[in-house]
Amino acid sequence: MRRLVALIALGIVTFAATAAGPRSGPPDDRADRYGWNLMTPDERTEHQQKMRGFTDYAACLAYVAEHHRLMDERAKAKGVTLPPMHEQACRRLKPAGQ
């Protein structure tokens, strides 16, 4: 009986974790995204759509800077520390050789 309860609990936790919001890439990297845990699922979806929609490097950089500023404010208000930023998300838009 304990084993059945444990399996059901594991299933519930697994379902809740996968239903937490949109993702791309390995599931383990979501928490490392700047401010990911401070956004609602709707905000995550909107953020991903914006990031995928940029065609201009400067516009992408401006959006990312504003996003990081907002996430820094939220983190400070909640007393949490954000993980270090990784590679710049807009790099795919930068022309080669620059």
Molecular structure report:
The protein is mainly alpha-helical and 98 residues long. It has one domain (2-93). Helix content is 53%, strand content 0%. It has three helices and no strands. The radius of gyration is 17 Å and the shape is extended. The protein starts with a helix and ends in a 20-residue tail after the last helix. Mean pLDDT is 76; it is low at 13-28.
The chain-level mean pLDDT equals 76
- The N- to C-terminal Cα distance equals 63 Å
Count of individual domains? 1
Uncertain residue ranges: 13-28
Helix content: 40-55%
What would you call the structural class? mainly alpha
* Beta strand %: under 5%
Helix segment tally: 3
In short:
The chain is mainly α and 98 residues long.
Identify the notable features of this structure and list them briefly:
3 helices, 98 residues, mainly alpha
Secondary structure layout:
Elements: H1 2-18, H2 41-53, H3 57-78
